[in-house]
Amino acid sequence: MTTPLATHAGPEAWSGKQILITGGAGFIGSTLATRLSQYGSKVTVIDSLVPEFGGNLFNLDACADQVRINFSDIREPFSLKPLLKNVDILFNLAGQTSHMDSMTDPHTDLNINCAAQLNLVEACRSVNPDIRIIFASTRQIYGRPEYLPVDEQHPIAPVDINGIHKYAAEQYYQLYHNLYGIKSCIFRLTNTIGPRMRVKDARQTFVGVWLRQLIEDVPIEVWGGNQLRDFNDVEDVVDAFLIAALDDKCYGEIFNLGSHEKISLLALAKLMIQLNGAGELVIRDYPQDRKKIDIGDYYSSYDKFSDFTGWTPTTPLEQTIERTIGFYQEHLPAYL
Amino acid sequence: MTTPLATHAGPEAWSGKQILITGGAGFIGSTLATRLSQYGSKVTVIDSLVPEFGGNLFNLDACADQVRINFSDIREPFSLKPLLKNVDILFNLAGQTSHMDSMTDPHTDLNINCAAQLNLVEACRSVNPDIRIIFASTRQIYGRPEYLPVDEQHPIAPVDINGIHKYAAEQYYQLYHNLYGIKSCIFRLTNTIGPRMRVKDARQTFVGVWLRQLIEDVPIEVWGGNQLRDFNDVEDVVDAFLIAALDDKCYGEIFNLGSHEKISLLALAKLMIQLNGAGELVIRDYPQDRKKIDIGDYYSSYDKFSDFTGWTPTTPLEQTIERTIGFYQEHLPAYL
After folding, report:
1. Phi, psi for residue A209 in degrees, rounded to 5
2. Backbone CA torsion sign across A263, A264, A265, A270
3. Strands of A183-189's sheet, edge to edge?
């Protein structure tokens, strides 16, 4: 299969570009920073290293010499302006991603996922209205699917505070695009996995904590198990971001990412154990306090983005899991 | 025509009920406070009297002896808890309503329309989970209509920051209803008019500033003029709130209000001049800086609420305007 990566997002196109990545020490942000520094971009990373979020300086080890790290919090409005000047493309990945934390501390979720996003888009408008913005949103805003696969027309019905706020932030970007011409492209990510993900706990995804359990030789705890999910390899997500960023017809649009491979949680746990060569699992009833925010089966249609750009996810799930297990077998202590 | 008001919202049902009204010195809040104090409810009003919002102590003149006024701001979380204890029904009307202000100062809009609403719903959950909440939202969240009349299934596409935040707040109430059983009922109001509305400027509705122009003998300024709108008399809106508040099947629901009478802005201006007995108008092009947030024709379907409860708006537009002009002919200085 021919992928359009060579034309759209080849290394040459990125050489010398001024890139800013919020949440750049996090899972996806650091993978992007690593790739773009290989491509010769001038990358600045913003990260606040809030312990509950995904930032981890170890993630930037491979590109530490090429990347400029700016320790700051996007909730703080003034420091954003000098950082945004002269930026060609902003990859805006900073956020509070934990669904449970959004329920126990909704104000922090509001501040990081709404107030800080307003700061960002206002700062762009003020100092760099020609900037291009790739904004990472989440499938969480769809809630419990009314049909599968879920496409971008699916009704919005968040089952948690995090989803409400991420949707509000999407609307800021759409509004500023329509009113002020600030170019933004929104991706609604499904479960993204790969090296550098948070594994300390389930704050990014349950797969993180499963990886830790696997490496630490603790039984993987599966809640329910029949729920179907789709997963994207982080490198495929980075490909999607790079393709969109250089393709002006993607701005003003909202795209799902996703995968044609669907797998039940139980089958996933078994696959992880098999690829690890050892491990156990226990199946538990879905916890009562989380039942109301359980969304059942979920997988995305990424047809729209595919039609726009030719992107499809190219990494088989098995290969992603194998590579990720290998990474944490070697580096787990850096993530605890 | 028989209306269901006698059974649903008759005075007897309200006698002795503990009522809290946020934004209770504002236009709709004070009309509600006046009515409920006539019905023998024990009414407490919260208002911060922020000069740009709708609060005006003159609005509570008719019920000043019966109503307890608590001067405070719902953005301040701690003072809400003692006020919410033992309340039977909360009419939650406090908010930033100006579309233009939400664009020039989006953070204030976020704080009052989102952060403060989180405070409120969290405080209810903590000190009074059995409370019933009537929440005033706005047709603004629909944006430019895709079809008319606009019903509750119409896509959400706010054309300003205010609409984004009001929709997020709606979702808080829906989420807390679904997850925690906090009973709430959401009304999406169309243009509401009547005595006690803000007329100092167009922050609540353009009709306010037209009333002022009319009384001050300044030409009414009509932008465009062909746009159709519907209007509700504030007393009809109060009826709707009272009916819903005592009808448990309304909780967990979202209802449009609206009117079967539709009128163009130009025809409305002419009607106002006619009923005032004097006045002039000038027609101007829609201002360039507001064109992008112009929604064209708008009117609501209120069939859902009508089907649920039998409510229909009973006051003819002409009668509302006549009564309102009379009010401001007498009381304009109290509103400047």
Report:
1. -70, -30
2. negative
3. A68-71, A42-47, A18-22, A89-92, A132-138, A183-189, A254-256
Nearest to B106 among A118, A159, A164 (CB): A118
Distance CA A192, CA A234 (A): 6
Name the interface residues of B facing A (CB cutoff 8 Å): 103, 106-107, 110, 114-115, 118, 122, 156, 158-161, 164-165, 167-168, 171-172, 175, 178-179, 292-293
Give chain B positions within 8 Å (CB) of A292.
178-179
The shortest CB-CB distance from A110 to any of B103, B118, B156 is to B118
> Is domain B10-196+231-261+302-314 classified as CATH 3.40.50.2300?
no
Give the integer Cα–Cα distance in Å for A203 and A335: 13
Taking the CA of residue B326 as centre, how many other CA atoms within 13 Å lie in the half-sphere pointing to its CB?
A: 6
Q: pLDDT digit string (tens) for A76-93?
A: 888 999 999 999 999 999
User: What residues does each domain of chain B span?
Assistant: 10-196+231-261+302-314
Average pLDDT over residues A214-222: 95
Task: Give buried/exposed letters for B153-174 (b at 16+ CB in 10 A, else e).
Answer: ebebbbbbbbbbbbbbbbbbbb
Q: How confident is the model at residue A54 (pLDDT cuts 50, 70, 90)?
A: confident
Q: What is the pLDDT along chain B (336 residues), one digit of tens a residue?
A: 333 344 455 789 999 999 999 999 999 999 999 999 999 999 999 999 988 888 999 999 999 999 999 999 999 888 999 999 999 999 999 999 888 899 999 999 999 999 999 999 999 999 999 999 999 999 999 999 999 999 999 999 999 999 999 999 999 999 999 999 999 999 999 999 999 999 998 888 899 999 999 999 999 999 889 999 999 999 999 999 999 999 999 999 999 999 999 999 999 999 999 999 999 999 998 887 777 777 899 999 999 999 999 999 999 999 999 999 999 999 999 999
Pairs of residues, one from chain A and one from chain B, whose beta carbons lie less than 8 Å apart: 58
Average confidence score pLDDT of chain A: 93
Instruction: Render B224-253 in DSSP notation, one character per residue.
Output: SS--EEEEEEHHHHHHHHHHHHT-GGGTT-
CB-based burial of residue B205 (10 Å sphere; 0-12 exposed, 13-18 middle, 19+ buried)?
buried
**Vertex B295: Cα angle to B136 and B111 (nearest 5):** 40
User: Smallest Cβ distance to A178: which of B107, B175, B292?
Assistant: B292
- Which neighbouring-strand residues pair with A284? A223
β-pairing verdict for B262-264 and B228-233: antiparallel
Report the distance separating Cα A133 and Cα A135, nearest Å: 6
Dihedral, A70, A188, A209, A195 alpha carbons, nearest 10? -60
Mutate to test the interface with A, among B126, B171, B288 (most CBs of A within 10 A): B171
Of all residues in chain A, the one with the smallest CA distance to B159 is: A175
The pLDDT tens digits for A277-308 are 999 999 998 887 777 777 899 999 999 999 99
**Which CATH code fits A13-197+230-261+300-316?**
3.40.50.720
β partners of residue A222: A283
Cα distance between residue B107 and residue A159, in whole Å: 25
Say how far apart CA A35 and CA A242 lie, in whole Å.
Answer: 10
Contacts of B118 in chain A (CB under 8 A): 106-107, 110, 161
Contact B114 A114 (CB under 8 A): yes
**Token digits for B8?**
């649903």
* Alpha carbon distance A94, A32 (integer Å): 13
